[in-house]
């Protein structure tokens, strides 16, 4: 079986701003939610059977306690933020496994789900659907891959090495050195991407660097590495069979009708029939 793990928060952002551009700046109350549902239904129609979606129920996480400048929910547009929780309810109604994260982030959920799924010998491949560079650390050979839905790039272990210059296992070290503006930590001054890759390929993880190498920035670098390291210990499911899609729940009709997306009902029912007959 193939496991599909989706970054629901990223998809919500992507559809929100994509639709805003298409609709000339007019935001539909549930437009981004409907966009995400359409995308996941399309995956099911194209053969996806086991799906899990991770969301940021809140933006803040345990990392905000480690680094005060770590990303927060401040600045998120109200029209977008109002669709965070409806997305979770809509996916649940559509029968999709959802992991709304509070203390951890959606990225931690994806990393944990990938780790759990990969322990099952029946799983042939785990596809992590997000362009977030943090998730590159989860890639393993061609069994756990990262997919950017927008660019349609599929990145296996070789692809990660080509893009970043280091193996997936060293991605947290790489991000610690170069920084991640999206997450709010700056990296180590004077070390660019090429320099970081060169150092990591020469010495390995930051812990193995000669003590004088970072010139007093070693403690900071290790803190940033902690921020960049995704958790894999979230107890999201006991068996990958829990991720199998069996069709929408009775609540889905009411939701789709409420938001004016009745075509989703027809598509979901048709996909369910296909699952039953397969």
Characterization of this structure:
With 278 residues, the protein is α/β, with parallel strands linked by helices. The protein has two domains: 208 residues, Rossmann fold (3-Layer(aba) Sandwich), CATH 3.40.50; 64 residues, 5' to 3' exonuclease, C-terminal subdomain (DNA polymerase, domain 1), CATH 1.10.150.20. The protein has twelve helices and six strands. It has a six-stranded mixed sheet with strand order 3-2-1-4-5-6, with helices on both faces. A hairpin with a 4-residue loop joins strand 5 and strand 6. Helix 2 packs parallel to helix 5 and helix 8 crosses helix 9. The chain is globular. The two termini are 14 Å apart. The mean pLDDT is 93.
Judged by helices, strands and strand pairing, the structural class is alpha/beta
Radius of gyration: 20 Å
Mean pLDDT: 93
Strand content: 5-15%
Distance between the termini: 14 Å
Oligomer: single chain
CATH topology of the largest domain: Rossmann fold
Biggest sheet architecture = 6 strands, mixed
Helix run count? 12
Q: H/E order of the elements?
A: EHHEHHHEHEEEHHHHHH
Number of domains: 2
Walk me through the topology.
Blueprint: E1 2-7, H1 8-22, H2 31-45, E2 50-56, H3 63-66, H4 78-81, H5 84-93, E3 97-101, H6 106-118, E4 125-129, E5 144-148, E6 153-155, H7 157-164, H8 171-178, H9 193-203, H10 218-228, H11 251-258, H12 263-277
Parallel strand pairs: 1-2, 1-4, 2-3, 4-5
Antiparallel strand pairs: 5-6
Helix pairs in contact: 1-2, 2-5, 2-12, 8-9, 8-10
């Amino acid at each position: 079986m193939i496991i599909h793990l989706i970054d629901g928060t990223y998809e919500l952002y992507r559809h929100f701003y994509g639709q805003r551009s298409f609709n000339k700046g007019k935001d539909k109350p549930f437009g981004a939610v409907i966009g995400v549902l359409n995308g996941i239904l399309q995956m099911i129609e194209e053969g996806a059977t086991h799906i899990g979606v991770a969301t940021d129920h809140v933006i803040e996480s345990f990392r905000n306690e480690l680094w005060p400048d770590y990303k927060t929910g401040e600045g998120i547009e109200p029209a977008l933020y109002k669709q965070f929780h409806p997305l979770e309810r809509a996916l649940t109604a559509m029968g999709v496994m959802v992991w709304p994260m509070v203390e951890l982030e959606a990225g931690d959920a994806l990393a944990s789900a990938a780790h759990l799924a990969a322990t099952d010998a029946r799983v042939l491949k785990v596809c992590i659907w997000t362009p977030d560079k943090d998730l590159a650390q989860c890639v393993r050979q061609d069994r756990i891959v990262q997919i950017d839905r927008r660019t349609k790039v599929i990145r296996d272990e070789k692809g990660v090495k080509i893009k970043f210059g280091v193996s997936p296992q060293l991605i947290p070290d790489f991000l610690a050195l170069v920084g991640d503006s999206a997450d709010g930590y700056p990296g180590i001054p004077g070390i660019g991407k090429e320099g970081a890759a060169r150092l990591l390929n020469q010495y390995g993880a930051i812990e193995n660097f000669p003590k004088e190498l970072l010139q007093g920035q070693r403690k900071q670098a290790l803190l940033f590495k902690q921020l960049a390291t995704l958790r894999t210990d979230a107890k999201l499911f006991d068996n990958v069979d829990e991720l199998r899609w069996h069709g929408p729940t009775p609540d889905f009709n009411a939701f789709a009708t409420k938001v004016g997306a009745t075509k989703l009902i027809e598509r979901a029912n048709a996909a369910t029939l296909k699952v039953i007959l397969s």
